[in-house]
Design a protein that fits this description.
Elements (H helix, E strand, L loop, with lengths): L4 H13 L4 H7 L4 E6 L2 E6 L2 H10 L1 H12 L4 E8 L9 E6 L15 H4 L38 H12 L9 E5 L5 H15 L5 E5 H13 L3 H9 L3 E5 L8 H16 L3 E6 L11 H7 L3 E5 L4 H15 L5 H10 L4 H17 L6 H13 L7 H11 L4 H5 L5 H17 L4 H7 L5 H17 L1 H15 L1
Parallel strand pairs: 2-3, 5-8, 5-9, 6-7, 7-8
Antiparallel strand pairs: 1-2, 3-4
The structure holds adenosine-5'-diphosphate (ADP) and magnesium ion.
Length: 476
């Protein structure tokens, strides 16, 4: 059988597939197309430069081994990158890059990237020669670094992209790097870590960390004092600009405008921009389109809620740093009960330690429960009887009036009993009050309803499913 790009690549794929997780395979290998085979060089087409960098960083060994098996020890891999041209030309163009064998050398990626040539440096009349000698205080917090930013599935992409940027600011395609995710998931930490590492590796680079809020204040101040231009110059000489919480620019047209100009200047000059936001770009509101589209130029990487294992490691790491020991069951209890916010997790640990040392009490499960209650209670949704009736009627596809009606039809009676049961379970209302709110019944009816639900859910499988489904809907 004669070899074609396709057959060679198919063989490589089946080897690769055996050696990585199905998820990784699907993400990083299924989108690749084999395009050409010449002698011992296989060309594969990847969807973006980011893709190429990711493959080189994480899978270069695997690729090399699989390709060597197919084409011998002189095997070569050439990436063909399909890029969208962001500068107006509709034609996508391709870029050919030979694979490096060392994962961290990305020299080759600089090979005649046409993007850069098409976009000659703009002369900026404002740049004052010599300004680079200015010392700019980075505003970085050295306590937020990569070493203590624990890795997990929830942050792997963002963390790796952050590392790549830190090792080569302005020199990767992650520009800007936009880190987004919910409150307390590590955006600020990661943003600092990138800056700290850059300062470490490249002490001469001017790095600046700033919150969007402070940036806005400075801008408003500059307008008041009539030195808007100085404000802009200041930002234009920075090598690495890190702006935290850019969602705060929403609705602020003037600040967005000035940021747009600063951004363009930095980007065109190969300077690195790192941004964080509590939302993905698509969900940002009242941010100008032209700015949003720039946010999407580089990479948007999400920080998700950490899984159980990661939460446990974060707790242990925190305890270790503070020199505190805590029984395993309490660590697990905390990890199980505070799930969506690492700041709250840390807060709970700190107050647990404080309580136990102030009151000279041992850290035990009872204390942990009390403290977790303080942390989690306010995030739990207040469930009202109205809400319960709404959820139950929606579930059975009837309206609330029907649920409350006097009818004796079995499925309606059951729906009503379920509503009563959950009202008893999830609210502090008395039986009488529940009865009066759910179709003007008396307390005995509610009591009977609760008993019936209990009985039915232990004898009737279908009914148990209703209870479980509704419980999920009402408590999640
Ligand atoms: P955000 O800016 O997303 O609201 P922060 O960066 O302020 O969140 O993080 C909240 C707290 O959680 C910080 O104390 C941070 O150090 C900690 N944290 C977040 N992610 C991690 C992680 N992966 N490893 C260790 N600590 C983390
Ligand atoms: Mg933050």
């Amino acid at each position: 059988m004669s070899m074609t790009a396709q057959t060679v690549w198919d063989n490589c794929l089946s080897f690769i597939q055996d050696n990585i997780t199905p998820q990784a395979y699907k993400t990083w290998f299924e989108p690749i197309r084999a395009v050409k085979l010449t002698d011992n060089a296989l060309s594969i087409q990847v969807p973006s430069k980011f893709f190429y960098e990711w493959l080189e960083e994480h899978y270069v060994k695997l690729l090399k081994v699989s390709l060597t098996k197919e084409l011998g020890e002189h095997a070569k891999l050439v990436y063909v990158i399909r890029m969208e041209n962001t500068y107006g030309n509709k034609q996508p163009f391709t870029e050919k890059i030979p694979s490096t064998n060392r994962p961290n050398t990305m020299k080759s990626q600089e090979v005649d990237a046409p993007l850069k040539n098409k976009n000659p440096e703009l002369k900026n009349p404002f740049v004052i020669p010599g300004i680079r000698n200015l010392e700019i205080e980075s505003q970085l917090n050295p306590n937020y670094n990569f070493e203590n930013f624990l890795e997990g599935d929830s942050n792997r992409l963002a963390r790796s992209a952050g590392m790549a940027v830190a090792n080569k600011p302005g020199g990767t395609s992650f520009n800007p790097l936009l880190i987004f995710g919910g409150v307390g998931l590590g955006k600020t930490h990661l943003a600092h870590a990138i800056g700290v590492q850059i300062k470490d590796r490249y002490p001469d680079k001017t790095v600046l960390y700033i919150s969007a809020e402070k940036f806005t204040q400075q801008y408003i101040e500059s307008v008041k004092k009539n030195n808007r231009n100085d404000f802009i110059h200041f930002y234009q000489v920075i090598d690495v600009l890190i702006v935290d919480d850019i969602q705060l620019l929403s609705g602020k047209a003037g600040t967005q405008d000035v940021f747009f100009h600063i951004f363009n200047h930095l980007h065109q000059n190969g300077k690195q921009v790192v941004l964080t936001s509590d939302k993905a770009p698509v969900d940002m509101q009242d941010i100008e389109q032209r700015l949003l589209s720039r946010f999407k130029w580089g990479l948007s990487a999400e920080l998700q809620s950490p899984g159980f294992e990661t939460r446990v490691s974060i707790i242990k790491n925190k305890l270790y740093q503070d020199g505190v020991e805590m029984p395993e069951d309490i660590v697990e209890f905390l990890a199980n009960n505070i799930k969506t916010n690492i700041r709250e997790l840390e807060g709970a640990i700190i107050s647990l330690i404080a309580h136990s040392s102030f009151n000279r009490k041992e850290i035990n499960l009872e204390l942990a429960k009390k403290i977790v209650d303080n942390y989690v209670k306010h995030t739990k949704r207040e469930v009202s009887i109205d809400y319960i009736q709404k959820v139950v009627s929606d579930y059975f596809q009837m309206d609330v009036d029907t649920l409350q009606s006097k009818t004796r039809k079995r499925h309606i009676v059951q729906a009503r009993q379920l509503a009563m049961f959950f009202a008893k379970k999830l609210t502090k209302a008395s039986l009488a009050s529940i009865g009066s709110q759910i179709g003007k019944r008396d307390h005995a009816t509610v009591l009977h309803a609760c008993k019936t639900v209990d009985n039915l859910s232990s004898t009737d499988k279908q009914f148990r499913k209703y209870v479980e489904d509704l419980n999920k809907k009402l408590t999640m």
